[in-house]
Specification:
Blueprint: H1 2-6, H2 10-31, H3 33-56, H4 64-82, H5 94-106, H6 114-139, E1 140-141, E2 144-145, H7 148-171, E3 175-177, E4 181-185, H8 186-206, H9 212-239, H10 255-276
Antiparallel strand pairs: 1-2, 3-4
Length: about 280
């Protein structure tokens, strides 16, 4: 199937992959909190492993298995604590887990840059695992499982990506950040922001889990931090001289390419909602 998709145009590949991906995500989110958690945990693991794999292309040696394991534990703790199945005190488990990375590197004889690679290991947890763990905060509330917030955020994020893609492709002239991403334009940025705000307006009519101004606030956050997240990932790829983070998702690249906007927008979204709700 992948070979057949590769024979199609990039835009066709993007549309087909997007339809399949959105269907899987919506099914998992709407079915139950358990299918939601399993899917996003799997995406988190795959994205984090992809990040470590790319670091190794630049002769780095992060603790791929252990760093990913710490990400899994962090995500699981967040989920079960938010579900009131575990006490908040179990969060402290992550502290000795992270500290153990120093002991592991102590016995890695072939690592000539142990502390730099410790930093890369922690970066994979902070950059990838933490944002995915924070998604649990959006769906697990005092009233139980509430998928509307994450669905709304995803709709706005997808709208922002779609608007930016088409506005940049057909109207793009003024470079947004040429040093990092030559193809990104101001027209693409505003096209994504406008479509994101349109979706936010629609959400205010049907999703009453938060106030209308808060949906608009989320749309602005996603437009800004999602775009910056895309640029940060582009900066990362340029630093190791690659075009895409992978080829797992036809027309989209790898998991980092697909979820880069989510990674840096989620900490701001959760903080915004925790303060103003």
């Amino acid at each position: 199937m992948t070979q057949k998709l590769n024979q199609l145009s990039n835009l066709t590949q993007r549309i087909i992959a997007a339809v399949i991906g959105v269907t899987i995500i919506l099914t998992a989110v709407l079915y139950s909190e358990w299918t939601f958690w399993i899917l996003f945990l799997a995406i988190s693991v795959l994205t984090q492993r992809e990040f470590y794999k790319l670091l190794k292309l630049d002769a780095n040696l992060p603790l791929t298995f252990y760093g990913t394991f710490c990400g899994i534990v962090l995500n699981a703790l967040t989920f079960f604590i938010e579900k009131d199945m575990l006490s908040f005190k179990f969060y402290y488990i992550i502290v000795p887990l992270l500290t153990t990375t120093f002991f592991i590197k102590l016995y890695k004889k072939k690592d000539s840059k142990p502390f730099a690679n410790l930093g890369y290991t922690f970066l994979g947890i902070t950059y990838v695992a933490v944002p995915f763990a924070l998604i649990n905060e959006l769906v697990l509330t005092d009233r139980g499982y509430e998928p509307k917030l994450i669905l709304g955020c995803l709709f706005i994020l997808w709208a922002n990506d779609t608007g930016a893609y088409f506005a940049g492709r057909f109207l793009g002239k003024r470079k947004l950040f040429e040093r990092v991403s030559p193809k990104k334009t101001w027209e693409g940025f505003f096209g994504g922001a406008i479509l994101g705000l349109v979706i936010a307006f629609i959400l205010t009519q049907y999703f009453d889990c938060i106030l209308p101004w808060q949906w608009y606030g989320i749309a602005v956050i996603i437009s800004v931090t999602g775009t910056l997240g895309d640029l940060v990932e582009s900066l990362f790829k340029r630093s190791i001289a690659i075009k895409d983070s992978g080829s797992v998702i036809p027309g989209h690249g790898g998991f980092l390419d697909r979820f880069d906007g989510l990674l840096l927008s989620m900490p701001f979204i959760v903080t915004f909602l925790k303060i103003f709700i």
